[in-house]
Amino acid sequence: MQQLSELSNLMSQHINWVGTALFVGFGSWQVISKKRKSAHAQKSLKKSSPQSQGTAQSAPLVEPIGLHPEFDRGLCISCGTCTAACPEGKVIQMIQGRPELVSPGKCVGHGECERVCPQDAISLVFGTRKRGKNIPRITANYESNVPGLYIAGELGGMGLIRNAIKQGTLAAQHALGEIEKTQTPKTQKTDVDLVIVGAGPAGLAAALSAIEKKKSYLCIEQGSFGGTVYNYPRQKIVMTLPAQLPVIGIMKFRGHQVSKEELLEFWQNTKTKTGLVIQEQTRFEKLVSDTGIFRVTANGKEITAKKVILAMGVRGTPRKLGIPNEDLAKVAYQLIDADQYQDQDIAIVGAGNSALEAAQSLAEAKLRNRVTLLVRGDALDRANEKNIEKVSALVKQGRITILYRTSVSGLTADTLLVKNGEGVIQTLPNHFLLVLAGTEMPDKLLTSLGIQIDTKFGETLGKGSTNA
Ligand SMILES: Cc1cc2nc3c(=O)[nH]c(=O)nc-3n(C[C@H](O)[C@H](O)[C@H](O)COP(=O)(O)OP(=O)(O)OC[C@H]3O[C@@H](n4cnc5c(N)ncnc54)[C@H](O)[C@@H]3O)c2cc1C
Ligand code: SF4
User: Which domains does the chain have, with CATH numbers?
Assistant: First the structure.
């Protein structure tokens, strides 16, 4: 009996030791794994730090340029929820127990981190204290400083289809609500209640709002219905979280992904179902505010409206290289159909998603192109992880060459002069040059309409601005 009890004591001691060992082991593994993650995050942070960014085309990228999260250290409880929320991948990571923006260039302003933070410790801001970003002045209802003139979508500084849909809807709801509020028998008659300039996602949502509210509208588009989406490369995979479309309801796709063609088809069906009218190939030229109404000129004709929404996006003003010969026909600022390029030497300037997606399409084996990606910095830190992985795989297969820390210093009909970080110039054979280095805010146009432009130095957008 005594022997049995000794055996049982021995066993229970053994179980305790094993338990303790497991507990200690698990604890140390967790600490090591956390340290590893933190070290990896620190590495990414270093990569995006000022010292490590190569200079090439113009000023080096030393700070987050667009919309990005800022953390209130007083409120943050270091729960790490924000690190997993970002659809773009590892943009925020924990470093020594604190969330840090390790890949600012990848942030496109989804605002998911802001939405999930249980402490309300995240704000989305434009620019930084040192580096400003020009943004048109708009209220929380998307009205500019010119009463009755609204700005929605990417023209207001924030990209993404879902944001454009939300802003187009809110701007139109406010504009149309104001018309109802101020309507009297003496109110001046106009051709339509609302003119919408641009038929991308923001313009589409604004026009649907007018249909929902049974108000008259004119939606003009200088190109084709769909806006920037219409001009995406063929078969591009569009990533978009669910968005609420007026009249139609929720717009969502499996895995939050859809091809360009399917998305355009969805919008075409929306057009048919709702009777939406878009006046394509009609270019907005100017507007004058005249005793409470607007006189809008498009394709040389004038139309009057009570309110106007500018949903023109920013693609009309692509960022240029500013070098001689840039007007050669071989230079383009967007890629629509990769199949048009076969057995060609093609260089792409840029390191963002557009540049990486173009490189992938052009590097398809069947096209036999020789694709070179010219990157200003020393890493691909401005695109999402999926695109970086795909391009890295194509580099390994020898289908894409990446030249880091480089800028274009000159071009002729069949060559490209590329300068590296040390100032050494290399001549590359070149048939086509795609410049996919982002866009500029059309400040000149906006100021000519009387809209105030502010330079934001890390100022907040207001809570929930991006969350549909
Ligand atoms: C290559 C690429 C890939 C992208 N991928 C994604 C993605 O996967 N997911 C995502 O959410 N976002 C993506 N984006 C961003 C997204 O497309 C934009 O943020 C969005 O289209 C902005 O919508 P918008 O309605 O504000 O403007 P736009 O879609 O740019 O539409 C504005 C429209 O206004 C018209 N216009 C401009 N000036 C005039 C004028 N004077 N008169 C009449 N019409 C005018 C233009 O022709 C254009 O059709 C991508 C962008 C690019 C370039
Ligand atoms: S989710 Fe909010 S509280 Fe949690 S780590 Fe991120 S910023 Fe801090």
Answer: 1-135+457-468 (3.30.70.20), 138-317+441-451 (3.50.50.60), 331-435 (3.50.50.60)
